[in-house]
Design a protein that fits this description.
Layout: E1 2-3, E2 11-12, E3 15-16, H1 19-40, H2 46-60, E4 82-85, H3 91-112, H4 137-140, H5 143-146, H6 186-189, H7 191-200, E5 210-215, H8 222-234, E6 240-246, H9 269-275, E7 279-283, H10 289-300, E8 310-315, E9 328-329, E10 333-334, H11 351-364, H12 379-394, H13 402-415, E11 447-452, E12 459-464, H14 480-491, E13 495-499, H15 534-545, E14 560-566, H16 574-586, E15 594-601, E16 629-633, H17 637-651, E17 659-665, E18 689-693, E19 704-708, H18 710-718, H19 720-725, E20 731-735, H20 738-742, H21 746-752, E21 761-765, H22 781-784, H23 800-806, H24 811-823, H25 825-837
Parallel strand pairs: 1-7, 4-5, 5-6, 6-8, 7-8, 13-14, 14-15, 15-17, 16-17, 19-20, 19-21
Antiparallel strand pairs: 2-3, 9-10, 11-12, 18-20
Length: 840
């Protein structure tokens, strides 16, 4: 399908629209973003210009023509359409446009006093914020006062609100944008999940919709490539609409004729997307407003029963300029286009910049100040000239009623955002706060429940076993499906799972009460179909948990999601999850919780191959700000439910916790007999660390042994009788989660592991010595601990028993290691004392 230029200006597929107004706003946007680069002397140039016509049309065409339905005054309203500038480096086109829109409303409100035009100062983006381009919030607090400009009338808009910091790459806190755009295609990769969320909660097709912008180079990246399958698998239909800006230009090369030799004529973007089953439209000129609005209208009018996602591939020019004539800029010669235009690489007030500015002056009868005098070296004068010339652009709003039209248009579009929409979920109730999910209320006995499908009315019997009897054979991984099932029972199917074609293997499959999700035939299914796409799956999960259907920012009405694979492969999920954590930290709305299931982790997985080792790889999940994630490492079936729901209880109440990581191994060991433990509480894992064996009273103490991981802990427990017989008096502690332990009362923490114990401990663990389960441990911990990287080489593989023995985590090796640790305690302590004494 293609969309061509309408024969009549201002008509798109037979529907009239204000083309001239859009062109004027577009030219203003291009000039404003160019001023940002000129005076900041940094940023991106050609890409933002290329996106500008589509960006402007999407924001101003209106929902009746397929444009965005949003409210600039309440840009994060949940029922407004979701706008994703996934091409995050193209942020200047949005910053510039939002300043223009903000100024139109600002001037209209000041002129009339009409509250319809009022935008809260902390929401609006205004011309004075141009000074915040690529500056940090700290520096901006004193930017004007440092130059004696606090009371200068040019900067009056900064009074009381300051200057907004505008990042080099766009973030989800920015006005209508709903993605942290940028690195490696991770922004666009979340789009399928964002769209699917609204199907899952029962919203009408297209209300809201997701409009995302991305470029052809970013679409070659793995995360973005996997979106093709993700969106088809989730059957998001026309709710997802992507504009792909095809200008054949990246950062330092072309795609066709550069990265891909021109002789490979079969490399066609349209064919690539069509072959994945998408509904593909093409624009011969991605800068022509008739074609753009025509494409928006075509997508809006498409069949809602067609479950193919939609993409518009528009031919654009990187370095586009509205005043260019046949590839020339009057007064400057050849237009700077293609990848050379990627950065703003021109000197301040350069000849090319001045030539661009002259075309704008000629078009609108305005005059920029000082640009002919070369670079401005004085910081104070630079700020004055910068803001003066931003205001020159804004003065175009005073011409031909443009400002009034724009303000009224924004109010009209904003007022179309519904106060409520029909949904399947209760937006006033957060099911993740249900008391049945608290650790203290978890049923210890197996449950047989009667559940009813709220859509079909079907009833079925549901069996859930959060705990098992000691001696039963069931590894920790077997409990994963049970915690998911219990959470779905309590929350009415609000916990979704996406596993890389491993759902059964890593025990997520049976967490779904009603089976596989299908938006038409089984909308209550929570097991989402997923290919072997770790990056794509976690990105979709992020798109799902990043939404809320509640108008109240403090009230969560959404879903939680699990994305899982082998522990060894989970680093593929890290980049999207890291970006999500940043987005969650900054969001003013309560959002859902992302779960990473590192299944089949540890050296035990070597029976598959060395490529499947999960010993180093899962440690990437420690690479977050402390307390923003909760890591859980389970060794026993009965640790899983109390440990997980302790973490869930925190995450549901502490907004900063946006990610929970669960690490489990493959072996099916016997469930531990806790009656033999010092802490016999079956819910002990909720405390993060618990004592398996305490010091024997009245005997010399030999130190602390902290265990983490499946085979390591199980085999350590198995040699406890031998240690007793050998007179080895060590305290053995199971380490489930440092984050949970940190949240325990000080008295408990000191009783389990007093501060001095960290200088007198060893680890027995299936992880590596590169990253310990606890922080601030002693200098000799490495020398005495038993880990899966004992010899600092990759293990060779083989049977499970072979690998555990090679890793020195078999019972005999553990006994010998603990015995050495105990027997050498006097030497260990004296060595540490000597080091401290050497400090003087």
């Amino acid at each position: 399908m293609s969309v061509h230029t309408s024969p009549r200006s201002g008509m798109a597929s037979g529907f009239p629209y204000e083309r001239r107004r859009l062109e004027d706003v577009g030219y203003m946007t291009c000039m404003t973003l160019t001023l940002l680069g000129n005076y900041a002397q940094t940023g991106h140039f050609g890409g933002p210009l290329a996106y500008t016509p589509f960006n402007v049309a999407a924001h101003l065409a209106g929902p009746e023509l397929g444009g965005l339905r949003y409210d600039y005054r309440r840009p994060k309203h949940p029922y407004g359409d979701k706008f994703m500038l996934a091409a995050g480096h193209c942020a200047p086109t949005c910053y510039a446009l939002w300043m223009i829109l903000g100024q139109a409303l600002y001037r209209k409100h000041h002129a009339t006093g009409d509250r319809r035009y009022h935008v809260a100062p902390d929401v609006a983006m205004l011309p004075v914020d141009a000074l915040g381009f690529r500056r940090g919030a700290g520096a901006l607090r004193t930017l004007l006062s440092d130059q004696g400009l606090s009371d200068h009338p040019l900067f009056a808009q900064a009074k009381g609100r300051g200057i907004r910091a505008l990042s080099g790459h766009i973030e989800s806190t920015d006005l209508t944008n709903d993605v942290n755009g940028g690195p490696s295609g991770v922004g666009i990769a979340t789009a399928a999940g964002k769209a699917a969320f609204w199907d899952i909660v029962g919203a009408p097709m297209g209300t809201p919709k997701v409009i995302a912008l991305e470029g052809e180079f970013a679409m070659t990246e793995g995360h973005a490539q996997e979106l093709k399958t993700q969106a088809i698998a989730l059957q998001v239909g026309k709710r997802l609409r992507i504009f792909l800006s095809d200008n054949n230009a990246g950062i330092d090369d072309s795609l066709i004729g550069g990265v891909v030799a021109s002789k490979f004529t079969g490399y066609r973007l349209i064919d690539q997307w069509t072959s994945y089953g998408w509904n593909v439209l093409s624009l011969a000129d991605g800068h022509d407003y008739d074609q753009i609005v025509g494409a928006l209208r075509t997508m809006e009018a498409s069949d809602p029963a067609d479950r193919r996602p939609m993409i518009v591939i528009g031919t654009t020019t990187k370095g586009y300029w509205p005043g260019a004539v046949n590839g020339k800029i009057p007064g400057a010669g050849d237009q700077v286009v293609g990848y050379p235009s990627h950065p703003y690489g021109m000197k301040m007030n350069s000849e090319y910049f001045v030539a661009l500015a002259r075309t704008f002056e000629a078009r609108y009868g305005v005059q920029f100040q000082g640009i002919s005098q070369g670079p401005v070296t004085d910081p104070r004068e630079r700020l004055i000239q910068f803001k003066t010339n931003i205001d020159v652009v804004m003065s175009v709003l005073e011409r031909d009623g443009l400002g009034d039209w724009l303000a009224d248009r924004l109010v009209e579009i904003g007022d179309s955002v519904p106060a409520e929409i029909p949904l399947r979920v209760d937006v006033k109730h957060d099911p993740f706060l249900d008391d049945r999910l608290k650790v203290a209320n978890l049923p210890e006995e197996p449950q047989t429940l009667t559940v009813r499908n709220s859509i079909s009315g079907k009833e079925k019997q549901l069996k859930i076993a959060l705990f098992r009897k000691a001696g039963e054979t069931a590894g920790a991984r077997r409990a994963v499906s049970e915690i998911v099932k219990w959470a779905n029972h309590v929350t009415d199917n609000r916990v979704l799972t996406l596993a890389a074609d491993l759902s059964e293997s890593i025990n997520l499959e049976h967490g779904s009460i009603w089976g596989h999700y299908d938006p038409e035939t089984n909308p209550l299914g929570t097991r989402l179909k997923a290919a072997i796409e770790e990056a794509g799956n976690v990105s979709s999960a992020i798109g799902l948990v990043g939404q809320s259907a509640s108008v109240d920012p403090d009230q969560f009405a959404g879903v939680w999601a699990f994305s899982g694979t082998y522990g060894a492969f989970t680093p593929l999920m890290y980049l999207p999850a890291r970006v999500w954590s940043q987005q969650n930290q900054d969001s003013k709305f309560r959002t859902g919780v992302l779960h990473i299931l590192a299944g089949h982790s540890g050296p035990e997985t070597a029976a598959d191959a060395r490529t499947h080792f999960g010993i180093f790889a899962p440690q990437v999940w420690k690479l977050f700000p402390r307390d923003q994630v909760i890591n859980l490492s389970f060794w026993d079936y009965n640790d899983v439910a109390p440990g997980y729901f302790a973490a869930a209880e925190i995450a549901a109440r502490e907004k900063k916790v946006g990610v929970i990581i669960i690490e489990v191994a493959r072996p099916d060991f016997r469930v531990a007999d806790r009656s033999t433990f010092a802490d016999s509480d079956v819910r002990a894992a909720a405390k993060g660390l618990y004592v398996i064996r305490d010091f024997a009273p009245g005997q010399p103490r030999h130190g602390y042994v902290v265990a983490q991981g499946s085979s390591s802990t199980f085999n350590l427990v198995s040699v406890l009788p031998r240690l007793t017989q050998a007179g080895i008096n060590v305290k053995v502690i199971a380490a489930i989660s440092e984050e949970l332990f940190d949240r325990q009362p000080e008295a408990y923490r000191n009783a389990v592991l007093p501060p001095e114990a960290r200088q007198d401990l060893m680890f027995v663990m299936t992880g590596t010595r590169r990253m310990w389960p606890l922080r601030n441990v002693g200098s000799l911990t490495d020398e005495y601990s038993l880990t899966a990287d004992q010899e600092n080489v990759w293990l060779t593989g083989g049977t499970e028993a072979d690998v555990i023995a090679e890793a020195h985590l078999d019972p005999d090796s553990i006994f010998a290691g603990v015995q050495r640790f105990a027997q050498e305690r006097p030497t260990r302590l004296s060595r540490q004392r000597a080091v401290l004494n050497a400090l003087g």
